[in-house]
Design a protein that fits this description.
Elements: H1 3-20, H2 27-38, H3 44-51, H4 55-65, E1 70-75, E2 82-86, H5 88-97, H6 103-107
Antiparallel strand pairs: 1-2
Helix pairs in contact: 1-2, 1-5, 3-4
Length: 111
């Protein structure tokens, strides 16, 4: 699977998640949930780098989703790197969204 196809599938997964998610979930938040769900990263810095989003924006979205859709595992005070995992609610939303969200369909390197 080429990079463009992977990006298209990722965005489709984000769009589908937004369709089934509670009102108020922002596209950035949906992208973080999908990224964590498929294993692109579990901390704010790696998510920021993989998604091409400023670290400060990722931190702000993590803060907004903390307790409802994301669980903060730990924080590094010096770097502000924040490690997260999906809550059960976020896992259920990701699963309900569609098969597009399955990790194998987005991270597979086979055609």
């Amino acid at each position: 699977m080429d990079e463009e196809d992977t990006a298209t599938r990722f965005m489709a997964a984000v769009d589908e998640l937004l369709q089934v998610a509670p009102a108020g979930l922002q596209p950035t938040g949906a992208a973080l949930i999908v990224a964590v769900h498929i294993g692109l990263g579990s901390d704010s810095r790696s998510l920021s780098n993989k998604l091409g989003i400023a670290h400060a924006l990722v931190l702000r979205e993590i803060s907004a989703l903390s307790g409802t859709l994301l669980h903060i595992v730990r924080r590094e005070d010096r770097t502000q790197r924040t490690f997260v995992e999906l809550t059960e609610k976020a896992k259920a939303l990701a699963t309900t969204a569609s098969n597009t969200l399955k990790p194998s369909s987005l991270s597979s390197n086979t055609s």
